[in-house]
Design goal:
Number of helices: 3
Binding site for oxalate: 41, 46, 51
CATH topology of the largest domain: Jelly Rolls
CATH class of the largest domain: Mainly Beta
Shape: globular
Protein name: Germin-like protein
CATH architecture of the largest domain: Sandwich
Subcellular location: Secreted, Extracellular space, Apoplast
Helix content: 10-25%
Largest sheet: 5 strands, antiparallel
Organism: Mikania micrantha
Number of strands: 10
Strand content: 35-45%
Main location: secreted
Length: 152
């Protein structure tokens, strides 16, 4: 089990060409996601890969958001053995929906799928995105932006 004692309650162990050079030219990679109770794999995207997720243990709520202009949320609760597909480039997430620990395996259609975790990128960039830009984009008070940025 990965170390899930962090702010989001999950641990992702990737196996891409960076960790396993033998994947070079095969166009595949994997990831193991361990979830503490109520843990999440925060909203993120893989810009170069479709992902197929298989639940190995537990119950996991999964979802993704379709592209503009619909921005439709698609969700499903998965049980052990269930499979779900996240289309390439779309923002998606997982949440442990049960009371115990959960485990999932993600297979990706690229040896280097990339991962962009939305909150980290938007509020944790280096240097920071200007707070006035984020305040206007999210329609929130600028002090809320500063508070969120301080957590990253």
């Amino acid at each position: 089990m990965g170390n899930t004692s962090n702010n989001v309650g999950s641990d992702v162990t990737p196996v891409t060409v960076a960790e396993l050079p033998g994947l070079n030219t095969f166009g595949i990679s994997m990831a193991r996601i361990d979830f503490a109770p109520m843990g999440i794999n925060p909203p993120h995207t893989h810009p170069r890969a479709t992902e197929i997720l298989t639940v190995i243990e537990g119950t996991i709520l999964v979802g993704f958001v379709t592209s503009n202009p619909e921005n439709r949320l698609i969700t499903k609760v998965l049980e052990k053995g269930d499979v779900f597909v996240f289309p390439e480039g779309l923002i998606h997430f997982q949440k442990n929906h049960g009371n115990g620990y959960a485990i999932a395996l993600g297979a990706l259609s690229s040896q280097n799928p990339g991962v962009i975790t939305i909150a980290n990128v938007v509020f944790g960039s280096n240097p920071d995105i200007a707070a006035d830009i984020l305040a206007k984009a999210f329609q929130i008070d600028i002090n809320v932006v500063y508070q969120i940025q301080s957590k990253f």
